[in-house]
Design a protein that fits this description.
The protein is mainly beta and 536 residues long. It is built from four helices and 32 strands. It folds into three domains: 97 residues, no CATH class; 195 residues, Porin (Beta Barrel); 221 residues. The chain has a 24-stranded antiparallel β-barrel. A two-stranded antiparallel sheet has the order 6-7. Strands 8-9 form a two-stranded antiparallel ribbon.
């Protein structure tokens, strides 16, 4: 009840203008949003879906923002009544969990309270929110950003990370500096070169009986970003001091990561090459943190982010403590008037990513193992080779054909004894525009494998009336599995200005859900899901 009183006071501060001097409100901007997601559970023995004690889960978010001149302020109230099944139980309850005020003036920014920030690619520090995965590791403290000397941008942060409805014990401190080299030289070239560095430390008190456990853990990075015409290259190297914790089995070995990204493009075609080697880089605000709790850094997922459900049955979770591999991404547009291009051209894209375990030698000391920097073992975690052909046949019809070959080491990636999964998948996607507003999309898919759940077939039909209404019906059928389960879903969504409402009924398979290489285990679910978002 106390939190509800706090919310009422906060709302009155934002909207109760009768007692606020009119001059203060002149030129002020108010904005906000509200989002609610609700689930009604039902028992479904065929897929192993159970019902929690409370048959309804409800996640709710109210965000309010204010700005006037150089001043900004905001808050977010969250209510989990109770938290949706599958989210961390640490999110139960209701509270104002995000509040801040700050100054934005010219080349200076100051934030006091909760904030999100990222240094470089996030390898040493990234505070962000992903509600789909149930991640919110915002920092409660102070953030400063300025570039008083124009080619130099400096960021500094200090505070504690969010853990459910509270904050963790670890204290995070960091600084990041970026220099625009050509800007410093006042060069008129269209090319770009920057050099940057970051330093982040975590302090967590240790009260155990070992004298060797470090209370301070430090990670630093050096990076550069270069663009010349159609060519781009950026790289980041990170080193972390000894950080024994639960997920690295209390190894004292230092962490090291190298990330290299390159790109080249010409008219109608382009290619990206990404390479990464990461060792002991699970960096958290507390030693005993697990799952997605208190992540200080972010190791980006360098593999294809598929949009089709059959291709997401075996997603790749980044192995931040031991991994070496990379990704090649290629695309080309076949011009109009050619045999393949016909009247509208054809877009062809190909992607290949693969990741292995590093080759290590076990030791009896506290570091647990040794490894040459680029040594690759014979243990493969994952590969994904996929080709996508997107073709517009007329003003009304467009098709997308996708093929994917996926290798998935389920034992290494999910932690239990499984056979290796080697799958081949095809997806055919047809989009037909009935007229300017009405469209029909049909998706047909199939996945074949000789292990795990064996073969799957999928189908989806979606009808849309732009920009207001969509409805769909879909099914993903494990037709050779032990229970031969159908994972059916049907629903609709309505949009009107800044208001969106959606309702879905169906099933969700137990497994791994990944977004950008960050993954979480999701339980089997059967029932209704309703969502509403509104901005004002």
């Amino acid at each position: 009840m106390k939190n509800l009183h706090v919310l009422a006071v906060a709302v009155s501060l934002f909207f109760g203008t009768k007692n606020i001097h009119a001059q203060f409100l002149t030129g002020a901007n108010f904005s906000g949003s509200f989002e609610t997601k609700n689930q009604l559970f039902r028992t479904d023995n065929n897929i192993g879906a159970t019902v929690p004690n409370d048959k309804i889960g409800s996640n709710n978010y109210l965000k309010l923002d204010f700005s006037k001149g150089i001043f900004v302020a905001g808050m977010r109230y969250e209510a989990y009544l109770p938290v949706i099944f599958g989210y961390s139980p640490l999110y139960n309850g209701n509270k104002i969990v995000n509040r801040f005020f700050g100054i934005r003036k010219d080349k200076f920014e100051l934030t006091v309270g909760n904030f999100y920030e990222q240094f470089g690619s996030g390898l040493v520090f990234r505070a962000y929110e992903d509600r789909q995965l149930g991640i919110d590791n915002s920092v409660d403290g102070v953030s400063i950003k300025f570039n008083i000397i124009e080619p130099v941008t400096i960021k500094a942060i200090y505070g504690k990370q969010r853990l459910g409805m509270e904050t963790g014990n670890g204290i995070i401190r960091g600084i990041d500096a970026e220099l625009d080299v050509f800007g410093l030289l006042k060069s008129n070239t269209a090319n770009y070169l920057s050099v940057s560095g970051s330093l982040v430390s975590r302090y967590e008190a240790y009260t155990g009986g070992l004298s060797t456990v470090p209370e301070n853990v430090t990670a630093y990075s050096a990076r550069f970003d270069f663009v010349a015409g159609n060519f781009g290259l950026n790289s980041e190297y990170v080193q972390k001091s000894s950080d024994p914790h639960l997920l690295n089995k209390y190894s004292y070995r230092k962490g090291r990561t190298l990330l290299i990204n390159s790109s080249y493009s010409l008219e109608g075609m382009g290619m990206n090459v990404n390479l990464r080697r990461t060792e002991n880089m699970d960096f958290r605000a507390e030693r005993e943190a697990v799952n997605s709790d208190l992540l200080i850094n972010y190791v980006p997922g360098l593999s294809k982010q598929h949009k089709y459900s059959v291709l997401n049955l075996y997603p790749y979770a980044v192995q931040s403590n031991n991994e070496i591999g990379g990704q090649i991404d290629f695309y080309a547009t076949v011009p109009k008037g050619t045999f393949l291009g016909k009247n509208y051209g054809t877009l062809i894209s190909a992607n290949f990513s693969t990741y292995y375990e590093m080759d290590t030698i076990a030791t009896t000391n506290a570091e647990a193992f040794n490894s040459d920097f680029f040594a690759v073992s014979k243990t493969k975690y994952f590969h994904d080779f996929n080709v996508e052909i997107e073709k517009k046949w007329s003003k009304k019809l467009k098709t997308t054909l996708t093929y994917a070959n996926i290798y998935y080491n389920k034992t290494k990636l999910e932690g239990e004894a499984y056979e290796i999964v080697k799958s081949n998948s095809v997806v055919a996607d047809f989009l037909y525009f009935i007229n300017e507003k009405n469209s029909l999309r049909i998706e047909l898919s199939h996945l074949a494998t000789k292990t795990d759940y064996l073969n799957w077939v999928g189908a989806m039909v979606e009808y849309g009336v732009a920009p207001y209404f969509t409805c769909f019906v879909s099914d993903l059928y494990n037709y050779q599995g032990n229970k031969r389960a159908h994972y059916y879903n049907t629903g609709f969504a309505i949009s009107k200005g800044d208001l969106n409402f959606s309702l879905r009924y169906g099933r969700q398979k137990k497994g791994v859900l990944c977004v950008g290489g960050v993954c979480t285990q999701v339980p089997a679910f059967s029932g209704f899901v309703a969502g509403l978002t509104v901005a004002f």
